Amino acid sequence: MSRRPLLVGNWKMHKTVAEALELATTIKNSIAPAVRADGVEVVVAPPYTALHPVAKRLEGSTVAVAAQNCYWEPQGAFTGEISATMLAEVGCTYVIVGHSERRQHFHETDALVNLKAKAVLKAGLRPILCIGETAAERDAGEMRNRLVGQLAEGLFGFTPEMMEQTVIAYEPVWAIGTGRVATTEQAQEAHRFIRGYLHSLLGEVVKSVRILYGGSVKPGNTAGLMAQPDVDGVLVGGASLKAEDFVQIVRYNEAAAS
Ligand code: PEP
Predict the structure, then answer these.
(1) CB of 215 shorter than 6 A to ligand 1
(2) Pocket of ligand 1 contains residue 5 by CB under 6 Å
(3) pLDDT at 156 over 80
C-alpha cells in the first residue's frame, strides 16, 4: 500500500512572528516542485504565537500547519493552556503530542498523551504521536517493551477509524538534537516492529498509517531513511529551522537521483 511521504518541521521554541513568517514564506516558495513531482506532504510546526500568522501566510499553499502540543479539554479554567479546538480555529491541521521533550521536561505520561491525541481527533485534527526509547532502555534491551508500552497506552481506546487519522513518529530519545542519527537499519527495524505491533492492535488499517522517523535528520541522511520500506516520512527539529536545509530535506528525492 502506498503511503504519501510526510515531512514535518518542528520549530520548537524558536522564531519570533517575523522570523516565522520569513521561514514559512521561503519554504512555501521553494518546495512547490517537490510537492508536485513527488507528491510529498509538508507540514511546519511553529510555536503557538506564530501559528495564526503562519497559517494565514500558507493559506492556499501546499504546506500545512501543526501545533507542537495542546490541552485535552476544549475550554475551561486551565490557565496557560491551549485546546485542540482553538488550534483548529487558527488553521492547524496536525498536532504533535507526546514529544520526548514534553515527556522529559513536563512529565507527560502516556495516559496524558492518550487524552491529548483523542482531543485532537475530536477537534477534527490529526495527531502526530511521538514515541521512542532512551539510550539506557536501548542498551538494556528494553526498546521493544518501551515502544509497546507507549503505543498501548497512548492509543488506548482507539478504533481503526481513529488510527487512520493518526501519524506515529518514532523518535529515539538518544538521537534527538544529538547529531547521532539512527542507522537506516535501526530505523527500519523499529518501524517494522511498530507497524507489526499496531497491526496486532488495530488490524489492516495500519497498512495506511504513516510512521515518521525523527532524530538528527539532515539533508544528507534523509534519502537513506526515506528509502526504508516502513519509513514514511521524517519529523525534523534543528534542521527545519534553516530554510535551505529543510527545503533540501523535502527535496530528498532529487538528492537520491543525482
Ligand atoms: C525533534 O524535535 O522532533 C527532533 C527530531 O529534533 P532534531 O531533528 O533536532 O534531532
Answers:
(1) yes
(2) no
(3) yes
Sign of CA dihedral 153, 159, 165, 170: positive
The range of the structural domain enclosing residue 202 comes to 6-257
Domain membership flag for residue 193? yes
User: Looking at 41, 99, 133, 191, which residue is catalytic?
Assistant: 99
Q: Does any domain span residue 1?
A: no
Which of the residues 133, 137, 171, 191 is marked catalytic?
Answer: 171
Indicate the burial class of 211 (C-beta count within 10 angstroms; 0-12, 13-18, 19 or more). Answer: buried
Beta bridge partners of 8: 43, 235
* 3-class secondary structure, 32: helix
The answer to whether residue 78 sits within a structural domain is: yes
CA 152 – CA 198 distance, rounded (Å): 9
What pLDDT was estimated at residue 257? 67
> Mean pLDDT, to the nearest integer, of 199-206?
97
Number of domains in the chain: 1
Say if ligand 1 is within 6 A of residue 69 CB: no
Let me know if 105 is a catalytic residue: no
- When pLDDT is averaged across residues 48-55 and rounded to a whole number, the result is 98
191 noted as active-site residue = no
CA distance 198 to 148: 9
